[in-house]
Amino acid sequence: MSEEAVPGPARGPVYVLLPGPVRSAHDGQLHYIGASALAQLYGVPLSRCVVWQNGPRAPVPAGAVFLRPRADGIYRLPVRRESQQAPPDDGACW
Where are the domains of the chain? Predict the structure, then answer.
């Protein structure tokens, strides 16, 4: 993959897919989750992804979001820390 083909931050986040085996918490079996399945599980387009298998196949842009198989089967995109707001400092306990 050439650098021109690497998704850039100008069009939104870039996802780094880390395909591989995962032991399911539900059935205890070992499953292999490939890059296409991983993108589908997380609901991200492959055009925004770089596959990392034994190292990246392309340069990884700064701020990329790494996605890997999950044993619990919950595939939600992580919340970006910059977008999280601190609770108001009004003396209330959280």
Answer: 1-7+19-71
